[in-house]
Amino acid sequence: MILAAGLGTRLRPLTNTVPKPLLPVLGNPLIVWNLLLLKRYGFRDVVINLHHLAPMIEQALGNGSQFGLRIIYSHEPMILGTGGGIKQAEPYFSGEPVLIVNGDTLFELDLDALCAFHRTNQAAATLVLREDPDAARWGLVEVGPDHRIVAITGKGIASAVPTLPRMFAGIHILTPRLLREVPKGVASSIIDPYVAAIARGESVLGYDIKGYWSDIGTPERYAQAEQDARTGMIRLDDRRPTDQN
Question: I want to staple 138 with a disulfide (CB 3.0 to 4.6 A). Which of 20, 53, 167, 242 is the partner?
Answer without folding.
Answer: 167
